[in-house]
Design brief:
By secondary structure, the protein is α/β, with parallel strands linked by helices. It is built from ten helices and eight strands. The chain has helices spanning 18-31, 49-59, 74-84, 104-112, 130-146, 163-171, 179-185, 209-223, 226-256, 263-295, and strands at residues 4-11, 35-42, 63-68, 89-92, 117-122, 155-162, 190-195, 303-307. The chain has an eight-stranded mixed sheet with strand order 7-5-6-4-1-2-3-8, with helices on both faces. Helix 1 (18-31) links the parallel strand 1 (4-11) and strand 2. It starts with a strand and ends in an 11-residue tail after the last strand. The model has no long low-confidence stretch (mean pLDDT 83). The protein binds uridine-5'-diphosphate (UDP) and magnesium ion. Residues 6-150 form the Glycosyltransferase 2-like domain. Keywords: Membrane, Transferase, Transmembrane, Transmembrane helix. One of its GO terms (cellular component) is plasma membrane.
C-alpha cells in the first residue's frame, strides 16, 4: 500500500497567491508516487481564500480544508491542521510559496530513511531586511542561553513529521504554542535539510515588529523559567551592595563626624531600582498571564467549516 502523506498549509488572506501555489505544488505531489491529500487551514481570512478553497475541493477532492471560526494565528492554525491530518507522514508548509514544493522528495527520502522529524532550515532570507535578521539572530542567541530545548538553527515551519511525532504534538495541550520549540521538545530522530527561501508570490507578510516581539516573548516564556528566577539573585546582589554602602557611610560618619549631601545619587538610585522592580513585576505578569490562559481551558481553536474532511473522532482538541 502506498504511503499516505498529508500536506498541512495554514493560509491567511492568501487568495491571490493560492492558484500559483497549488499550480507549483500539484506536479510535485503527483511525481511522489504516494497517496496524498492537502489540508489547508483557513485562519479566518477576510478575502476570497475560503471560496477558493471550496472551489479547489470541488475540482479535486484531494484538496481539503478546514476553516477556523476566526483568525487564531499561525501557531494555532498549525495545531488545528495537525489535529485533522491523518497521513502516515505530515508535511507542514506556508501557503505563500516561500517554501519550495520542489523540496518534498528530499523530505520523503529522509523520512523513509527512518527520521521521524525532518526540518527545513532556511539558507537565506530572500526579502527580509538586515533589521529582521538581527532581530532573529539575537532572539536565537537569547533562547540558546536561557531556554531548555536547543532550537535547530534556521528552523522554520517547513517540515515533515512522522505519524508518531504528529501524535506527540497532538498530546501537548498548551495554549501558547511555540512550535519551533515544541518540535525540538518532542524528541525522536531529527534531521535538517537546508533550503533557500523564495519571495512571497503575492500579498504581504502578516508579521510586523509587535507581532514578532510577542512571538519571541511567547517562545522564551514557554520554554524557560530563568526570567522568573533571575530577580532573586539580582535582589541578593543589590541588597549586599546596599549593606556594604551603609557600612561605608557609618564608618565615614563615625570617623569624620559629618554626613554628606547626596541628593543626585539618591534620585538616580531610586529611579534605577523602581525600574528594576517594575521590570521584574512585568516578567512575573507574563508568567501569571500564561497560567491564567491555561486554567481557563478554552478550546485551542474553533472550526467554522470542514471542506472534504471530518474531525478524527478518537482525538479531541484539548
Ligand atoms: N498565516 C496564518 N495565520 C496568520 C498569519 C499567517 O495562517 O495569522 C499563514 C500565512 O497565510 C502563510 C504562513 O502562515 O501561509 C506564513 O505567513 P507569512 O508569510 O505572513 O509569514 P513569514 O513568511 O513572513 O514568516
Ligand atoms: Mg511568508
Amino acid at each position: 500500500m502506498a504511503d499516505r502523506i498529508t500536506i498541512v498549509v495554514p493560509v491567511y488572506n492568501e487568495a491571490e497567491g493560492l492558484p500559483l501555489f497549488v499550480g507549483r505544488l500539484t506536479p510535485v505531489l503527483e511525481s511522489l508516487g504516494v497517496d496524498w491529500t492537502v489540508l489547508f487551514v483557513n485562519d479566518g481570512s477576510v478575502d476570497a481564500t475560503l471560496v477558493r478553497l471550496r472551489d479547489l475541493n470541488e475540482s479535486d477532492p484531494r484538496f481539503t480544508a478546514i476553516s477556523l471560526s476566526r483568525n487564531f494565528g499561525k501557531e494555532t492554525a498549525i495545531a488545528a491542521g495537525l489535529h485533522y491530518a491523518d497521513g502516515d507522514a505530515v508535511i507542514l508548509m506556508d501557503g505563500d510559496a516561500q517554501h519550495p514544493p520542489e523540496m518534498l522528495p528530499a523530505f520523503l527520502e529522509r523520512w523513509r530513511a527512518g527520521f521521524k522529524v525532518v526540518l527545513g532550515s532556511r539558507e537565506g532570507m530572500a526579502e527580509e531586511g538586515a533589521l529582521r535578521r538581527l532581530y532573529s539572530r539575537s532572539f536565537h542567541a537569547l533562547f540558546r542561553l536561557i531556554a531548555a530545548p536547543r532550537l535547530p538553527r534556521g528552523a522554520v515551519d517547513f517540515l515533515l513529521l512522522d505519524r508518531k511525532a504528529v501524535d506527540a504534538m497532538n498530546r501537548l495541550g498548551e495554549r501558547t504554542r511555540f512550535s519551533k520549540g515544541l518540535y525540538a521538545w518532542i524528541g525522536f530522530e531529527h534531521t535538517t535539510i537546508p533550503f533557500a527561501v523564495g519571495g512571497r508570490v503575492a500579498g504581504q507578510s502578516s508579521w510586523n515588529f509587535t507581532r514578532l516581539l510577542g512571538f519571541a516573548v511567547d517562545g522564551l516564556v514557554s520554554f524557560s523559567t530563568i526570567p522568573l528566577k533571575v530577580w532573586s539573585y539580582l535582589g541578593l546582589v543589590v541588597s549586599a551592595c546596599a549593606m556594604l554602602y551603609a557600612l561605608v557611610f557609618l564608618i565615614r560618619t563615625l570617623v569624620s563626624g559629618t554626613d554628606q549631601p547626596g541628593f543626585p545619587s539618591l534620585i538616580v538610585s531610586i529611579m534605577f531600582f523602581s525600574g528594576v522592580q517594575l521590570i521584574s513585576l512585568g516578567v512575573l505578569g507574563e508568567y501569571v498571564a500564561r497560567i491564567y490562559e491555561e486554567v481557563k481551558r478554552r478550546p485551542l481553536f474553533l472550526i467554522g467549516e470542514e471542506i472534504g474532511v471530518t474531525e478524527p473522532h478518537q482525538k479531541r482538541h484539548a
